[in-house]
Design a protein that fits this description.
The protein is mainly alpha-helical. It has a domain at about 10-85. The protein is about 75% helix and about 0% strand. The chain has 2 helices and no strands. The longest helix is centred in the middle third of the chain and has 84 residues, at about 15-95. The radius of gyration is 49 Å and the shape is rod-shaped.
Amino acid sequence: MQNDRSVHQLNNDYVARLRASETAHKAQKTQMGQRRRKRALGILLVFAVALVLCLWAYGQNMASLQKINQETTTTNRQLSSSKQKNGQLNQQVKQLHNNDYLTQLIRGKYLYTKNGEVVYNLPKDAK
């Protein structure tokens, strides 16, 4: 076994250029890694902003949809009520074409009497 002192490093131009090249290569690798990290961070940031905007728009759309659904429900109730009232009014129109009903309505509501009739108003029972 040889002594460690027997190994000497060469300090010539070639070794110096080789060391400088290795140092430059390491610096270049470090710089490329930093660039890649910055680029990845930028892309991630763009996607994060896009995601936030999409979620915000989704929330706005859901709120708008809920409001429209409430308005639709209210409108449907009003429509149902109007249809029911329309049915009642149509029934009254049909009854107004009936002479017996019309006579009864005029005599009862407007206290119309025939010649020689006497109408007596009786008090209604108080409950």
